[in-house]
Amino acid sequence: MEICEAVTGAKQEISGLYFRTLPEIQAACIFHRGSYGTLPESYESVLKYIEENGYEIAGAIRESYIDGVWNQEEESGWLTEIQVPVRNRAV
Hints:
This protein is an alpha+beta fold and 91 residues long. It has one helix and four strands.
């Protein structure tokens, strides 16, 4: 498992914590606000968009945790970006 968090710059690596730059991709993205327990609803929305607009999944899905328990007191303030790599579906 890999956990992704956007940072302003790489820091010194320590045991189990590494910094890397991810490659640029074409992706269908959706912002999910709220509990991680309701993430499936956002996945359903973005996957429906992909299907209905002629795309197919082209790699591993990423979740970027923007706001969460570390900086928000209420789950309603949690913000996650779901990034689904896509390519045009072959006709």
